[in-house]
């Protein structure tokens, strides 16, 4: 799928969180949503990204926003990640990467000369009506929150 841009409708989703509960995009109507995709729980970059979101939760709430992370990890791994770092926001399991594909966050990557398919670290700020306010692809872990902050004003 092509990459999303500001003004596009955010693709709907329903996935299980770290506690096995179903979470849908529709659950966040009337609030802004910082939605980000990360490759694998409890790896250095993903930990940096998740902890920066955790540390900005109060600031996001003041701007009327909440956060959700999505990776291909199973809920049990997401739960361990949440418990280890006290993240306190939904971490959703997308094992078949269908939601990542819908958001343009699944694609070709390369490491050590090998190419493979995987999560393209991405973040999206979605408004109360389900429209994309800001989309960042190949985002650095430490830039997820500053990108959202700029858009939120």
From TrEMBL:
Catalytic activity: a hydroperoxide + [thioredoxin]-dithiol = an alcohol + [thioredoxin]-disulfide + H2O
GO CC annotations, alphabetized: cytoplasm
Keyword Oxidoreductase: yes
InterPro entries: AhpC/TSA, Peroxiredoxin_BCP/PrxQ, Thioredoxin-like_sf, Thioredoxin_domain
Catalytic activity, EC: 1.11.1.24
Keyword annotations from UniProtKB, A to Z: Antioxidant, Disulfide bond, Oxidoreductase, Peroxidase, Redox-active center
Name by which UniProt lists this protein: thioredoxin-dependent peroxiredoxin
Lineage, uppermost ranks: Bacteria, Pseudomonadati, Planctomycetota, Phycisphaerae, Sedimentisphaerales
Gene giving rise to this polypeptide: bcp
